[in-house]
Specification:
It comes from Metabacillus sediminilitoris. It holds the Pfam family EcsC. This is EcsC family protein. With 278 residues, the protein is mainly alpha-helical. It has 11 helices and no strands. It has one domain. Helix 1 packs across helix 11 and helix 9 packs parallel to helix 11.
Amino acid sequence: MNKTVRQKTILNEISLWEQELQNDVRTDLGRTFDRWIKRKLDEIPDSMKQIFFEKLDASLFNLHSFIQNSLIQQDAKKQILLSAKALNEEIFQINDLHKLHIDQLHYLADLQTSKHRLYSFIQGGLTGTGGILLTGIDIPIQTILNLRSIQMVSMCYGYEINNPYEMMTSLKVYHASLLPKHLQYNQWHELKKEIDSDDDIFYFYEGKEDLSNRNSLEYIVKQVAKLSVLSLFKRKLVAGLPLVSMMIGAGMNYQHTRRITEFANKYYQYRFINDKSH
């Protein structure tokens, strides 16, 4: 099947986005901070890092399954099908969403991701209040919100997440989206290669299952650094509230979720178009 004019336009938009990924837009301060983190991580024994990576992968697999099987996610799935059915009466299950046009799928995905960006904004603002409990659960809550947002995008483009292949794919998209922009391009290129080489939709995943790496550890260190920054500003009160730290927390979490959902949207758009053209 030949690509439609609209699909070609979207592929051109994705190509421009790819080019932006190759640009290193970090400031001198950002580069200095990254070099400092790398030096500190190099001081950690490889054996300890390997144990951490294995534990992190196991935690993400379990968390993914928990989110997928939760009642909230099942209700969200029903809502996606209900919205899709309003666009096409022949929609009965997630795979049927492939019958819709890509702009319709993008509309459904945008509805879901906009909710998650709002949730992330509110959660970041609450973390900025400086409460010990809220600060302590910031990273786990962010992980849940962002994993769930990728699952939602996957379903909105007609890819069910209840099989090993789609679960691993969504986790790979999650890991790639966590990277800073100057490191995302290589991971994006690897994901594209897998899409281009897959002729069929598989049920079992046959690729590499070890996802966590040095970049995962670096991401967590940066999140901890973010929480440290918030703690510095929580004492600056305006009308009795730490508005500065709340604004910083809300803004940073919003931008983080926005970047993750944008990456996921580009991936599933590209995959949908690729599958349609075969």
